[in-house]
Design a protein that fits this description.
The chain is of the alpha/beta class and 344 residues long. It has 2 domains: 10-122, Rossmann fold; 131-293 and 321-342, Dihydrodipicolinate Reductase, domain 2 (2-Layer Sandwich), CATH 3.30.360. It contains 11 helices and 14 strands. The chain has a 7-stranded mixed β-sheet. A hairpin with a 2-residue loop joins strand 12 (272-274) and strand 13 (277-279). The longest helix is centred in the C-terminal third of the chain and has 20 residues, at 315-334.
Length: 344
């Protein structure tokens, strides 16, 4: 089958039919030219059936999906604990791989996943969506072009929307989520916005301020991580799981000759002026803020699969962000700065 432009259609299988998988399935089916959602698999067959029915996809189990010679690549959107094993299995089956972050939870697993894709000669892309947001990408280009001089202070913020979710949902959140699944985005962003520099040392302060009753279980919901780089830049990554005013994701780089900012809070430029002050509608979810970025990263992946090209975000990129996350975890546990190169 070919697209209207004469290009072969890329047929993809999705593994993981939860919230994020459902979102990616919709974007792939509706917004990515030349792509087909061919199959959906999940350890909960009923979830796979519900999602597949929306788009006319098949519902094989994971083994059958990976064995299907008509499927060109897979999107891995399962629980993070399963990512690295699924990457290896998909690579061994000869499938191109796109995986949500974090691609693995340990460096050993990450290295195994990278090795498997390299041995198989298949593309391996990781879902760091902020790189595909227009404002973040434009900021990175300004930095790359020397538009702010040498980076000196770099900042990345993630504040998830909502109230005291911990009282209702904390039992479902794995330990270290704030570092490996939330701040992992910020760590990748900081590395990307300070091109060519290497993170040297990490220091973490974190606590359970949203749901303090869960701190004994290791669930942290508020954190600030300071990272020093070998070019002298000092970076901060900040996260909190309870932003009442909306979803807040921003980045900033201050340099020797200027500054760039990326990210937005308002859902539109509309400002409502009343006797009570100024009012704007804020974004409430990642799907609102990063819709175009989510579509673009899958569009780029489809192009990579079609051409067997180099992914814009690689397994090595994911490894670097993971190593910083693990250093941040160690720093919290040991109450001291941790050198990134010492994390194994």
């Amino acid at each position: 089958m070919r697209t209207d432009h004469g290009l072969p259609v890329v047929r993809l299988g999705l593994i993981g039919a939860g919230r994020i998988g459902t979102m990616h399935a919709g974007n792939l089916a509706r917004h990515v030219p030349g792509a087909e959602l061919a199959a959906v698999a999940d350890t909960r067959p009923e979830a796979a059936v519900r999602l597949a029915a929306r788009y006319g996809a098949a519902t094989p189990d994971v083994d059958e999906l990976l064995k299907d010679p008509g499927i060109d690549g897979v999107l891995i959107t399962s629980l993070a604990i399963a990512h690295s094993e699924l990457i290896v299995r998909a690579a061994e089956a000869g499938k191109a791989v796109w995986c949500e972050k974090p691609a693995s939870l340990t460096l050993a697993e990450m290295d195994r996943a990278i090795d498997a894709t390299e041995r198989a000669g298949v593309p391996f892309q990781v879902g760091f969506n902020r790189r595909f947001a227009r404002d973040f990408a434009a900021a990175q280009q300004v930095i790359q072009d020397g538009g702010i001089g040498t980076p000196r202070l770099v900042r990345s913020i993630t504040r998830d929307p909502g109230g005291p979710w911990g009282l209702r949902y904390a039992d479902r959140i794995p330990q270290w989520t704030i570092f490996r699944e939330t701040l992992i985005h910020d760590f990748d962003t900081l590395l990307w916005l300070n091109p060519g520099a290497r993170p040297v040392e990490v220091y973490t302060t974190a606590d359970a301020l949203v749901a303090p009753d869960y701190k004994e279980r290791g669930l942290l919901d508020t954190a600030v991580v300071v990272i020093t780089f070998d070019n002298g830049a000092i970076a901060t990554a900040e996260a909190n799981f309870s932003s009442y005013y909306g979803y807040d994701v921003r980045g900033e780089v201050f340099g020797s000759e200027g500054m760039v900012e990326a990210g937005q809070l308002a859902s539109s430029a509309l400002v409502h002026y009343t006797a009570n002050g100024l009012h704007q509608q804020t974004l409430r979810s990642d799907e609102e803020m990063f819709h175009d970025a989510y579509v673009q990263e899958l569009t780029d992946f489809v192009d990579v699969v079609r051409t067997n090209g180099v992914p814009p975000v690689t397994g090595q990129d994911a490894r670097k962000a993971l190593q910083v996350a693990l250093a941040a975890m160690a720093s919290y546990e040991e109450h001291r700065p941790v050198r990134v190169e010492d994390v194994r």
